[in-house]
Amino acid sequence: MFGGMVSGTLLVILFVPVFFVFVMGLQERVNGWRAARRPSSLQPDNDIEH
Fold this sequence. Notes:
Elements (H helix, E strand, L loop, with lengths): L1 H36 L13
């Protein structure tokens, strides 16, 4: 039982940060892909004065 707790803890300590980095990289790729597919008329225009 002690070995299972230690191995589970070590696995989580290594897995969670790696999984977080993977998900954040995937999110950046998806956002870039969506921005590239968006028509230019829908992209925000920074030249508009409010």
